[in-house]
Amino acid sequence: MGFVEKDGLRYYQFNIFQGQSLFHAVLTRRGGVSKPPFASLNTGGTVGDEPQAVLENHRIIYKAFAYDYASRFDVWQVHGTKIICTDVPRPPDQRHSQADGIMTDKPGVTLFMRFADCVPILLMDPVRKVIGIIHAGWQGTYKQIARIAVEEMAAHYGSLPENLLAGIGPSICQDCYEVDRPVWDAFENSFGTDCEKYFVKRNGKLHLDLWQANADVLGMAGVHQVEVSGICTACHLDDWYSHRAEKGKTGRFAVLFALEDH
């Protein structure tokens, strides 16, 4: 599918989900009301943007795709490995739970997460009709949150890993992602000597490949139908927010994922 434009919004869709009873959109930063440096479709409420602008951006997204804003389920992302399976939206007056993975098998729930360089991983079981979004920065990646999510989908919904479809979304590429030695050590503890294939050294600096690492984690968990967008957030600031490239002063782009009711 690639990029789609609708009602002033520009968003990315995976080919792997075509023909499934779902809707998904990896929203770019275009089409919102936030002012620089958060211009313009910032959905992050803790980055310094005006709260009313953030709320309006959320409403713009839900209106464009004809979803009830009250159907949203989102969490406070903390670079951990907790996965929440939900049957209902998050009530507006309920505080966000801390988690980095959300799942549902209910068409009345729209899953919603925020990103700015970390890897969005979208999972779908076309047999059990289950969807999920995973947030995997370097911490979530070495902690193998993608594997934990696959295991949770199996335990909670009866999903078989070989049936799952996965999309690895726009996020920072290896060329742009310089890391320090403690990151190498964390990956070595998790992957053993296999971690070497996720790093290259340039000018004495380590660079990490989050895309390949997460694809491998999914593969080791039994998920082999995986599509990688190959789009770098730091390389394309016209479309994406990048915490690294914009030195922390930036917004968060959204991923919306929902089952269709048929």
Shape: globular
Major beta sheet summary: 6 strands, mixed
Biggest sheet: strand arrangement? 1-2-3-15-7-4
CATH class: Alpha Beta
Tell me which oligomeric state these chains represent. Answer: single chain
In short:
The chain has a single domain, classed as CNF1/YfiH-like putative cysteine hydrolases, CATH 3.60.140.10. It is α+β, with helices and mostly antiparallel strands. A hairpin with an 8-residue loop joins strand 2 and strand 3.
Task: Explain the overall architecture.
- The chain is of the alpha+beta class and 262 residues long.
- The protein has a single domain, classed as CNF1/YfiH-like putative cysteine hydrolases (4-Layer Sandwich).
- The chain is built from five helices and 15 strands.
- Strands 1-2-3-15-7-4 form a six-stranded mixed beta sheet, with no helix packed on it.
- β1 (2-6) and β2 (9-13) form a beta hairpin.
- α3 (145-157) runs parallel beside α5 (210-220).
- It is globular.
- The mean pLDDT is 97.
List keywords for this structure.
alpha+beta, six-stranded mixed beta sheet, 262 residues, CNF1/YfiH-like putative cysteine hydrolases
